[in-house]
């Protein structure tokens, strides 16, 4: 399929319904070569669902999901459980979806700081080690599109920054498009070209604003400021109540808020500081 | 050479075991033991149909199992009943349906015990030909889809995201399993086919360090069980299927013994 503007993937007002409830709805999204798009949002906001729609693992119930013909993908899923019955070493796992030379494997593992793990069994890896190995496998394929579902979960603090820097570097060297998910609303990469905030729908989107000089930011993040990380700041004009309904700034209630809410007057009632709350 | 019934049984059994081993690994990895049971119970329905329409047993059993496999995949995707409830329903319905059909056909005498537990006396040259033709087909397809099926087994989402069509691979795998069940029916019997899939694979697990190695060792373990089981069956007049399964069980128990640790303990013991 030929997509306009050389895009790798495209979602057009796509949504997935399970039973009577929508997991996510009305998502517009596209990733171009060399572009990093980050999805943020709380648990259950539809980030993984959106990524799976983008990859064609889930078919959208409404809207459309399109991929470039012959698109090669490197995917790091959110979870990977290896059963005892499966004798799977890191060396074999690296070649899970395509054949790779020993050299390609060791270079990729080196990049993610996991080269010493190559002889180990997958099920003996710790959470952070598993993430590094999965990332290495995905980049060793030299994909057109890299989809990373929470790539730094369980990775230690120093490793987290190293991996974010590596992702940025991979984008530059491979020229691939990257779709990344973070459950962390505050910390997204400085290199992200586009940030999409999900909460069952697209709440807002835009380039990450550089607020590292902001006093509130310094107070909140102190030590973590400036090291390849940035904060994406936004406020909402509506609040998602615990029962799933939405309260708008004018006090009206509705069951969902399809579509995007750009250009609204942002004001988040009951929250004293905008940064760090969504 | 194939004039002797025992040689025929041996040749047929080894052929079945070589195919069942690698496929059984996937049954274990994918946690589909109950699925194997369901298909093999349906084999009895296949036997009844083959007698009713007077067609080759292996073909009828294969056909019935394949239809059931496809039915299972589509029913599971529609998300009506839970997977294991669905399997239980189909498994026992097919078994009961097969037994009822056989009882109705008063004009045929069926060796029910042979169907359920295997009968080495019944192996013909045609059976051997079908086992090796079917087995070669299954192994060829398995080798061709190996990487994709294995990736889909490790993580369907990952395989799907990278374009390896895990759902199609699962369907192909189920059809391959149905074929193996059809060709194993005479050797081990409908009730014990799953054992021939699972136990050699389980015995291979502890001594394997890669999935490919486990598949090959499972084939060897299966062949060894067939040889051991059939000799026992011949010498002590025990039913062939259960004897093979018991031999496989013995291999599995042997694989559980921590041999490496025992050897080191004996060495250090002798030094003291």
Question: Could you please describe the fold and organization of this structure?
Answer:
The complex is a heterodimer of chains A (278) and B (272). Chain A is of the alpha/beta class and 278 residues long. In chain A, the strands form 4 sheets. Chain A has a 6-stranded mixed beta sheet, sandwiched between helices. In chain A, strands 2-1-4 form a 3-stranded antiparallel beta sheet, covered by helices on one side. The two termini of chain A are 37 Å apart. Chain A is globular, with a radius of gyration of 19 Å. The longest helix of chain A has 18 residues, at 157-174. In chain A, α3 (102-111) packs across α4. Chain A contains 6 helices and 14 strands. Chain A has 2 domains: 31-43 and 144-278, Rossmann fold (3-Layer(aba) Sandwich), CATH 3.40.50; 78-142, no CATH class. In chain A, a hairpin with a 2-residue loop joins β1 and β2 (21-31). The longest helix of chain B has 30 residues, at 125-154. Chain B is globular and about 70 Å long. In chain B, α2 packs parallel to α4 (83-104) and α10 crosses α11. Chain B has 272 residues and is mainly alpha-helical. Chain B has helices at 5-29, 33-53, 57-77, 83-104, 112-117, 125-154, 156-161, 166-188, 193-205, 211-236, 240-256, 259-271. Chains A and B meet through β5 of A and α6, α7 and α10 of B. Chain B: This is High-affinity zinc uptake system membrane protein ZnuB.
């Amino acid at each position: 399929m030929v997509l306009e503007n050389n895009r790798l993937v495209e979602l057009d007002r796509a949504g997935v319904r399970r039973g009577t409830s929508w997991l996510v709805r009305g998502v517009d999204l596209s990733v171009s070569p060399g572009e990093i798009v980050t999805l943020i949002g709380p648990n259950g906001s539809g980030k993984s669902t959106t990524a799976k729609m983008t990859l064609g693992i889930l078919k959208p119930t409404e809207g459309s999901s399109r991929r470039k013909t012959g698109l090669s993908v490197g995917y790091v899923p959110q979870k990977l459980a290896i059963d005892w019955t499966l004798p799977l070493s890191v060396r074999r796992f690296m070649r899970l979806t395509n054949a790779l030379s020993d050299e390609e494997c060791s270079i990729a593992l080196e990049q993610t700081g996991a080269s010493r793990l190559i002889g180990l069994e997958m099920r003996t890896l710790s959470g952070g080690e598993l993430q590094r190995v999965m990332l290495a496998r995905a980049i060793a394929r030299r994909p057109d599109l890299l989809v990373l579902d929470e790539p730094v979960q369980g990775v230690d603090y120093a490793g987290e920054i190293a991996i974010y820097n590596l992702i940025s570097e991979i984008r530059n060297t491979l020229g691939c498009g990257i779709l990344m998910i973070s459950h962390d609303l505050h910390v997204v990469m400085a290199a992200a070209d586009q940030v999409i905030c999900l909460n069952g729908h697209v709440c807002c989107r835009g380039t990450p604003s550089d607020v590292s000089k902001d006093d509130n930011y310094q107070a909140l993040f102190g030590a973590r400021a400036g090291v390849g990380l940035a904060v994406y700041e936004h406020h909402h004009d509506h609040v998602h109540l615990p029962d799933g309904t939405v309260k708008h700034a004018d006090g009206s209630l509705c069951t969902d808020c399809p579509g995007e809410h750009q250009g609204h007057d942002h004001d988040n009632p009951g929250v004293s500081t905008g940064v760090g709350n969504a | 050479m194939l004039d002797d019934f025992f040689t025929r049984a041996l040749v047929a059994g080894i052929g079945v075991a070589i195919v069942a081993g690698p496929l059984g690994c996937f049954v274990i990895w994918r946690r589909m033991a109950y699925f194997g049971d369901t298909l093999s119970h349906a084999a009895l329905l296949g036997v009844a149909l083959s007698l009713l329409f007077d067609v080759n047993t292996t073909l009828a059993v294969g056909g019935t199992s394949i239809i059931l496999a496809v039915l299972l995949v589509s029913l599971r995707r529609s998300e009506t009943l839970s997977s294991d409830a669905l399997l239980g329903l189909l498994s026992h319905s097919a078994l009961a349906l097969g037994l009822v059909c056989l009882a109705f056909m008063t004009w045929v005498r069926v060796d029910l015990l042979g169907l359920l537990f295997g009968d080495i006396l019944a192996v013909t040259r045609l059976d051997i030909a079908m086992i090796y033709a079917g087995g070669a087909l299954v192994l060829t397809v398995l080798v061709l889809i190996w990487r994709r099926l294995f990736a889909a087994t490790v993580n369907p989402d990952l395989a799907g995201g990278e374009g390896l069509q895990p759902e199609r691979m699962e369907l192909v795998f189920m059809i391959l399993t149905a074929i193996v069940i059809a060709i194993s029916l005479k050797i081990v019997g409908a009730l014990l086919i799953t054992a021939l899939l699972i136990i050699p694979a389980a015995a291979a697990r502890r001594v394997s360090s890669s999935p490919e190695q486990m598949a090959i060792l499972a084939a060897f373990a299966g062949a060894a069980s067939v040889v051991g089981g059939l000799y026992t069956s011949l010498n002590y007049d025990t039913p062939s299927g259960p004897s093979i399964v018991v031999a496989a069980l013995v291999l599995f128990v042997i694989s559980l013994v921590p041999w490496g640790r025992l050897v080191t303990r004996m060495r250090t013991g002798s030094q003291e």
